[in-house]
């Protein structure tokens, strides 16, 4: 498979979007990024290289990427939306202490809706979120006790 920048550039062109330096910068930032950044994180990082880039521009690029299937939007954190360039079916765990988000790869082929709901609704996708403490925070808490 092509790298993420080439992949997203081709998807944007196919969708009729112009390829701008700001879009390429967002693609590059997300290429291989496993930190599940927010729009604010991306804006802060890109602003150093592109001082005239606006938060709205970053946000709009992310929304365009979401529309064409280039990222996942994670609503795991009640305060901020996070973005994941890995669009394969996987789930996430959030450390409630430090805010770190971890990819969870697990088979869930047998997950089914209860009968009453499945008679009224056909899911096309789903996302499972786990909440707890990461190992680092658990160790730190144990040392403080």
User: How many helical elements?
Assistant: 6
CATH architecture call of the largest domain = Orthogonal Bundle
Runs in which pLDDT lies below 50 for 5 or more consecutive residues are: none
In one word, what is the shape?
Answer: flat
**Looking across the biggest beta sheet, what order are the strands in?**
4-3-5
> Largest beta sheet, briefly?
3 strands, mixed
How many domains? The number is 2
Number of beta-strand segments? 5
Q: What's the CATH H-level superfamily name of the largest domain? A: Winged helix-like DNA-binding domain superfamily/Winged helix DNA-binding domain
Task: Give the helices and strands as they follow along the chain.
Answer: HHHHEEEEHEH
User: Which radius of gyration do the C-alpha atoms yield?
Assistant: 18 Å
Main CATH class of the largest domain = Mainly Alpha
Q: What structural category do the secondary elements indicate?
A: alpha+beta
Quote the CATH topology of the largest domain.
Answer: Arc Repressor Mutant, subunit A
Spatial separation of the terminal alpha carbons = 48 Å
What percent strand? 5-15%
Q: Mean pLDDT, as a whole number?
A: 92
């Amino acid at each position: 498979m092509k790298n993420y920048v080439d992949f997203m550039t081709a998807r944007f062109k196919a969708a009729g979007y112009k390829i701008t330096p700001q879009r390429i910068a967002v693609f590059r930032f997300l290429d291989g990024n496993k930190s599940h950044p927010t729009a604010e994180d991306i804006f802060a990082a890109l602003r150093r290289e592109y001082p005239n880039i606006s938060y709205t521009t970053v946000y709009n690029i992310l929304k365009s990427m979401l529309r064409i299937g280039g990222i996942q939007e994670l609503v795991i954190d009640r305060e901020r939306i996070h973005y994941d360039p890995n669009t394969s079916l996987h789930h996430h765990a959030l450390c409630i202490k430090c805010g770190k988000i971890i990819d969870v790869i697990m088979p869930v082929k047998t997950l089914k809706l209860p009968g009453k709901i499945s008679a009224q609704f056909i899911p096309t996708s789903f996302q499972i979120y786990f909440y707890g403490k990461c190992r680092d925070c658990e160790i730190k808490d144990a040392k403080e006790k």
